[in-house]
Structures are given as structure tokens and as C-alpha cells.
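Morning. Coffee machine broken again, so started the prediction first thing and wrote up yesterday's gels while waiting. Chain of 126 residues, entered below exactly as on the submission form.
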Amino acid sequence: MKKIINTDQAPAPIGPYNQAVFAGNTLYISGQIALDPQNGTLVSGSVEEETTRVMQNLEAILKAAGMTFENVIKSSIFISDMNNFARINEVYGRYFDEENAPARETVEVANLPKFVNVEISMIGVL
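Came back before lunch.
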């Protein structure tokens, strides 16, 4: 049985999907980009600012599900330019204890929604 998770503290879905879905004790979080949940505008500026907003959106969804970043077991990071990897990774790393960090892949893609620099999805367990 699945349970849908949505919060107004993260951007509302703009298509036929939800922010996250619980299946048993596993939470699957849809990819998040740097949209401000209050007004739906794209956070512009540096790739660090974008990544911070993405992580804040993910944190809000985790919180709505009764979780924290400590519950995350897998992250998928999609970036539009591998030259930004170190900058994105530096911000991402602030949210995890290196010893208990989740499994992860980082993939450069041809494009992302709204032409952003980074999109991140996560899987967490209770």
C-alpha cells in the first residue's frame, strides 16, 4: 500500500506526480529543482544557491514524511555540466555525515526542467 506525501514547504508538482510516495517503510522522493515553494519562481544565481534550494526542498519533503537526511539511503544527482560537480558536491555534502552518507550517483544530462543546473531525487527508509 502506498501513501502520498505532499507539503506546501516544497514546490507543488506540475504534472501527474507527487512530491513523494511511501511504499511500506520506504520513501521515494521525486526529483527536485531550485523552485521557491512560496512563489514557484526559479532560484537564480550561482549553482551553489540552486543546490541549496534543492536541498531545502528535499529536507521539507523528508520532514513532512517524518524523516531527516539521516534516513536517506540513495540519492540521484542530475547535473547539466560536470564542470559544476565539485561546487554541487560541496553544498550537498553539508547535509550528510560522511560516515553515514547514502549511496549516490551523479550523472551529467543533456538538459533538465526549466534549464536548471541540478536536480536531485532521494530514497529514504524509516
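The beta strands are 2-5, 20-23, 26-32, 72-79, 103-108, 118-125. Going to sketch it on the whiteboard this afternoon.
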